[in-house]
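Troubleshooting log. The previous run stalled partway through. Resubmitting the same two chains, unchanged.
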Amino acid sequence: MRNRLSFYIPRQSLIHDLNPLTKLALVFTFIIVAFSSSWYWLPTILFFFGLVPLSFIGKVGKAFLRTTFRLLLPLFIFLFVMQSLFYPGGVTPLLSLWIFSVKLEGVQFAYLTGTRILVMVSSFLVLLLTTHPSTLMSDLTRRGLPGALAYIITSTLQIIPQMQGKANTIIDAQRSRGLDTEGNLFKRAGALLPLVGPLVFGSLVDVEERAIAIEARAFNAPCKKTSLIEISDTGFETALRWFFLLLMLAAIGSRIWLS
Amino acid sequence: MKLIDSIKKDFNTMTLVLIPVAIAINVVIGQIVVLLRLPVYLDSIGTVLVAVLCGPWAGALTGTLSNIIWGLIIDPNAFPWFPVALFIGFVAGWCAIGGLFKSWWKVVITGILIAFTAAIVSTPIAVYLYGGITASGSSFITAFLLQSGRDLVSAVLSTNFLVEPVDKIATALVAFAIIQGLSTRYISRFPRSENAAQEKGKRSTQLIIAIAVAVVLVVIAATVLVTMLG
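Second attempt completed without errors. Output:
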C-alpha cells in the first residue's frame, strides 16, 4: 500500500505563490470550458498550451506529466478500444477484423471524451502538485468555510497514513498466524473480516478520546478564530478570479445558447 | 426551523470526530479489498457506518468528503463521482431511521436500496462525463449491451443494476457486523444510537424472511429491467 499523504511537491515558483482560491478558480474554469465548448480540438489545446506550460512554470512539469500518464493511461486504453468498437453511432468502418470493426465515429468520440477527462484530471493535478491540502483548507476557512469542515478534511489527511500503517501491521500479523490472503476467491473473501475487524475497532476506540480532547480545547466556541498560517492574496488575484468567473459563465452561457 | 435544528443535533462533537475516521476506513478498506483481489469495491463502509450512527445528513457529508479526499490524495478521477457517495450516505441514513438496520435480513434490504440509488445516480455521470465507458471491468457488460443494440443510457443503467447490489449488500453487512461489535455504551454517545439497537428474533425465521425478501426484490428488479429494456 502506498503511504503518501498528497501530491504536493514543495518548490519556489510563481504558481506555488498564487493564492489557493485563485488556483481553484483556474481549475474550474479549465474544466467548465473544456466540457462546454463545442469546438472539437479545444480540450487538446487547453492541455498542451494551458496546463502543460503552467505545470512547467510551477517547476513540477515532470511530475505532472508522469502522474497524468500513470492515472489516465489505463482509462484511455479502455476508452479507445471500447468506444472505437462499440460506439452506437458508428457507421464508417476504418478496419475490420473478424466480427469487430473499428469505426471512425467511435475513435472521434473517444478522443473528445479522453481529452476532456485529461483536462479535468490534469488541471486538478496542477492545483494539487503546487498546493498543500491544508493550505487550501485554511485559506477556505478564512473565507468563511465552516471550521468543522476544514477540521474533518485536514484530520482525515493525518489519519489515513496512520491507518495504512496499522493495516500493514495487521496484515503481516494475520499472515504470520497463517491467514490465507492469496488462495481462491472464498479464502480471500474470508480473510476480509480478520483484517478489517481489528483495524476498524482499534480506530473507533480513539474517536471518543479525541472528541473529549478537542472539546476541552474550545473547538465548539462560537468566537472568530485566528490562523497560524499566513496566505498571500493580492488585488490582482481578486481581479483574476472575477475574470475566471466571467469566463466560466460565458462558457456555460454559450453552451446553452448555441445548442 | 425544525429541519435545521434536527440537522444540527446530528452534528455533535462525536460525529465530527467519527467522520474523519470513517473516511479513512473507506479509503483503507478500499485498498485492502484491492490487495485481496476481491471482485467488489467496499469503499463506502465508513459512509454507511456514519449514516447509521449519526443520521442521513452526516452520512451524505461523509460520502461527499470521501470522494474529495480520494481525489486529493489518490486519483482526481474520483471528484466527479461525489454525488453517488452523497446519496449512498443519505439513503443509508434514512433506511436506518426507518428501522432497516436492526437485524441482518433488513440490512440486506438496505443494501439493495443503496445499490439501486447508486446505480441511478452514477448513470448520468458515466454517460455524460465518460461516454458510458469507465475504467472498471463492468464496462465489458456495457459494451456487450451496446453491441446488442441498446441505447447508451439503458446499457449503462442495466450494467449498474447488475453490478451494484453485490457490492452494496456486502458493504451494508460489513457495516452491520462492525456496529454489532461495538459496545452499547460507546454507541450511545452518537446522536442516532437508537438506529443500531438490535432486534431479537429466531435465526431460522429470519433466514426464511431474508430469502423471501431477496427473491421478491430480485423478481421486481428483473421485471423493471425487462420493461425498461423493452
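Takeaways: Chain B touches chain A through 58 residues (CB under 8 Å). Chain B has a mean pLDDT of 86.
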